[in-house]
Design goal:
The protein has 170 residues and is α/β, with parallel strands linked by helices. 31% of the residues lie in helices and 16% in strands. Strand 4, helix 4 and strand 5 form a beta-alpha-beta unit.
Length: 170
C-alpha cells in the first residue's frame, strides 16, 4: 500500500497494546514515519509543531479526548487539512456518527485488522496524480464511512487484547 501521501502518521491512544498493534500494522503497510503518544493534548502540540499526514486517535484519553483533539485539529490553520480517523469499539456507532459530523475523515473499529485498516486508508488516499487529501465532508464520507470493515482480525485474540473491547470482541 505504500503511498507517497502517507509519509508520517501519529497514533494517539492511551492503551499501549492498541498503539503497538497499530504501529506494527502501519509498518507492514509501508508507512515510513510513525509516531505515538498517549495524550490528546500532547498530540495536538506535536501536530502544531510538525504536522502529520494522518492522525489515528482513540476516543477516550487523558488531556483531550479524541473528539476534542479532532475539534482542535479542524480549527487550527496549520492542522485542519490532516486526515483524521477516530478509533472506537463496535458498539459505539453513535460516536462514529458524531466524529464524522465533527469532521473526521473516517473511523476504525476495534478490534481491527491490517486488511480493515488498509481498506479504510485506501478509500481516502487521493487518486494517482492528485496530491491533495480529501476534505472532511467530501463525498468519500458518505455511506462507506458508516459501514464497518467486515474482515476478521489478522492476529489471534491471545496475541493482542483490546482492553476497551467486550469479551465477545477480543
Amino acid at each position: 500500500m505504500a503511498n507517497p501521501i502517507l509519509q508520517k502518521v501519529l497514533i494517539v491512544d492511551d492503551d499501549p497494546v492498541s498503539r503497538k498493534k497499530l504501529h506494527r500494522i502501519l509498518q507492514r503497510l509501508g508507512i515510513p514515519q510513525i509516531e505515538e503518544t498517549n495524550r490528546g493534548d500532547e498530540a495536538f502540540a506535536r501536530l502544531q509543531a510538525e504536522p502529520a499526514d494522518l492522525v489515528l486517535t482513540d476516543w477516550y484519553m487523558p488531556g483531550l479526548t479524541g473528539l476534542e483533539l479532532l475539534h482542535a485539529i479542524r480549527t487550527d490553520e496549520r492542522t485542519k487539512h490532516m486526515l483524521v480517523f477516530l478509533v472506537t469499539v463496535e458498539g459505539r456507532r453513535g460516536q462514529i456518527l458524531e466524529a464524522i459530523q465533527a469532521g473526521a475523515n473516517g473511523y476504525i473499529i476495534k478490534p481491527f485488522s491490517q486488511d480493515s485498516i488498509r481498506q479504510k486508508l485506501e478509500a481516502w488516499l487521493p487518486q494517482q496524480g492528485d496530491s491533495r487529501a480529501p476534505e472532511p465532508g467530501s463525498s468519500n464520507q458518505g455511506k462507506a464511512a458508516l459501514e464497518p470493515a467486515s474482515k476478521p482480525i489478522s492476529e489471534p485474540a491471545s496475541a493482542v487484547t483490546e482492553p476497551h473491547a467486550s469479551p465477545a470482541q477480543a
